[in-house]
Amino acid sequence: MSILDIRVLGDPALRKETAIVESVTDDIRALISDMFETMYAAEGIGLAAPQVGRTERVTVMDVGGAKYALINPEIMLSQGSIRGEEGCLSIPEVFGDIERASIVTVRALDETGQEIEVGGSELLARCLQHEIDHLHGKLFVDYLSVLKRRAALAKWEKIKADYPGYVRKVILEKRGAHHSEGEL
Ligand code: NI
Question: Which residues are catalytic?
């Protein structure tokens, strides 16, 4: 396993549509374990393949101790709506209130290639929607109103110099040094 570099806002990888995984191979399983390791090291609760510069339709999450590795996830059902604060490992230190469906049901393949269904509400529902958006080149800041997006991007303009080449090096020693709860 290895910790991968996280791509931050401005890297074109984050805006690319991912490719459907045709078969769940050892390469995909290796990607999944690297993504889990990277997500935990960065203290996030979700990570999608484009965030580590990959094009496979794969995401990992750990919400309240429940781990999910989802391949080709698709939202089958969504209900209700709820606003809540969101952040992203690819846009460090920027947060915003985003409206999401409050309950979603997602169909995907697991690491063994079996079809699974994941249903969730609250934080799990939010995380599922956020990660699936990543797989289609969409970021949470896209949902902000014009004014709030302008403010978020102005903040990011000042922060982004810390990430040359749009790369966020995840350094284990930094663990706990900054507050990144809620970065998905
Ligand atoms: Ni994210």
Answer: 131
pLDDT digit string (tens) for 41-96?
999 999 999 999 999 999 999 999 999 999 999 999 999 999 999 999 999 999 99
Distance between Cα 113 and ligand 1 center (Å): 24
Report if pTM > 0.85. Answer: yes
Strand partners, 67: 62
Total number of domains in the chain:
1
CA angle 10, 12, 17 (to 5 degrees): 130
Q: How remote is the CA of residue 16 from the centroid of ligand 1, in Å?
A: 14
| Residue with token string 């580590």 | 52
- How many angstroms from the chain centroid is the CA of residue 127? 8
Task: Give residue-wise pLDDT tens across range 7-50.
Answer: 999 999 999 999 999 999 999 999 999 999 999 999 999 999 99
Query: Please, which residues have CB less than 5 A from ligand 1, an ion?
Result: 88, 184
Q: 99 has which bridge partners? A: 83
Residue 155's domain is classified under what CATH number? 3.90.45.10
CA of 46 to the centre of ligand 1 (A): 7
In a domain, 133, yes or no: yes
